[in-house]
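Hi L.,

You mentioned the student needs an example of a multi-chain input paired with its predicted structure. This one should do, with 225 residues in total across all chains.
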Amino acid sequence: DVKVTQSSRYLVKRTGEKVFLECVQDMDHENMFWYRQDPGLGLRLIYFSYDVKMKEKGDIPEGYSVSREKKERFSLILESASTNQTSMYLCASTPPRQGAVQPQHFGDGTRLSIL
Amino acid sequence: GQNIDQPTEMTATEGAIVQINCTYQTSGFNGLFWYQQHAGEAPTFLSYNVLDGLEEKGRFSSFLSRSKGYSYLLLKELQMKDSASYLCAVRGTGFQKLVFGTGTRLLVSP
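Structure written out for the whole complex:
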């Protein structure tokens, strides 16, 4: 079974802080994703990565950056946290299999509150 | 643009059948996924359709019509544990990216 692990289930930070959310997968997947989930808005893609040191902007990258130094780990960084970044953050991964579409496997999520 | 529509909320009775609809308009199409998400938990994969027709998997079935931009998830013999949000997601022609609908919250009552 694929295991996607997010470092924290709950996190409380203050405005202006630099915040790191960590995600690790144990299935040697090339593709990793960061989403945020808000009521009435669904899951929105922040950033994704298809290989080590590679990253692509998703639909809402403003205020965020990412780091992929190792294949198994994908970090989301809030450069200067703001209250509108209070949300549930979900990490996902999938292998790249050509000619087939693999479902994304999600971590349990990090509920982040910015005060 | 990309747009995926699902009803916000549905209610049904234990033992009944419920159909959750999803319509989509996306730039390209390369598969549609359904996920189940219980409150406070991660989404879990339920089904995948890339060709027109019905895919059956136990009590759950999913249907796709690409010409109509339409899918539905059918849940039979509803159980209380089926109370959850159901997310419709479409993969376009881009890289493994998914576009998600806002989800349908299903409440199953005794």
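You could point out the following to them. Chain B has a mean pLDDT of 93. Chain B is about 0% helix and 55% strand.

Best wishes,
N.
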